[in-house]
Amino acid sequence: MYLENFTEQNNLDLVGLIAVPTAPMGLYSEEYETIEDIESGDEIAIPNDPTNAARAFMILEEAGLIGFEDGIDELTASARDITDNPLDLQFVELEAAQLPRQVGSSEITAVPGNFALSANLDLLEALELENMPDQYRNVVAVRAEDEESTLANDIVEVIQSEQFEETIDEEFEGFGKPEWME
């Protein structure tokens, strides 16, 4: 998804080779130990950009905190689409880069994985981590003319190796794996 927008905006001819494990968005709290502890009227800080906001809403739905009509487009879900909010949760939208600093100021904060890592948040301490669709994962990309090159093939081979997966499991706990690794 990002790759398509990036190539179009920068007039580049890139192709994605393979999706790789990626740090997922998480729900963080200094106030609560579990999702079940969340109380009526709590404030949840979410990203203000539509794509990351949709991701945050999907985590909240998976956690059973809000609901949407069946068939909602997961890529475009917004606060307007919420049909069930039994705890009357209040949503505050902030720039994604500001969200790590919001942890502790709001009862719950949805922090994208890259910003969580930059702020030294422990992915495994999130109350909930997103079950990230592959459209949101990082992708190794090359120029289209190099798609079949030795380098491109070697990169894919390394990423698909058992050693790569072992390294992810040992050194990158909490990272979500793409479907091909499951």
What Rg do the Cα atoms give?
Answer: 18 Å
The CATH class of the largest domain: Alpha Beta
With strands numbered from the N-terminus, the spatial order across the biggest sheet is 6-3-7-2-8
Say what the CATH topology of the largest domain is.
D-Maltodextrin-Binding Protein, domain 2
Q: What fraction of residues sit in β-strands? A: 15-25%
Calculate the mean pLDDT score and round it.
Answer: 94
Question: What is the helix/strand order?
Answer: HEEEHEEEHEHEEHH
What shape does the CA trace take? Answer: globular
Contiguous uncertain segments of 5+ residues:
none
The number of domains:
2
Q: What this model shows, in words?
A:
The chain has 182 residues and is of the alpha/beta class. The protein folds into 2 domains: 2-22 and 137-177, Periplasmic binding protein-like II (D-Maltodextrin-Binding Protein, domain 2, 3-Layer(aba) Sandwich), CATH 3.40.190; 26-134, D-Maltodextrin-Binding Protein, domain 2. Helix content is 28%, strand content 19%. The strands form 3 sheets. A 5-stranded mixed sheet has the order 6-3-7-2-8. The chain starts with a helix and ends in an 11-residue tail after the last helix. The relative contact order is 0.25.
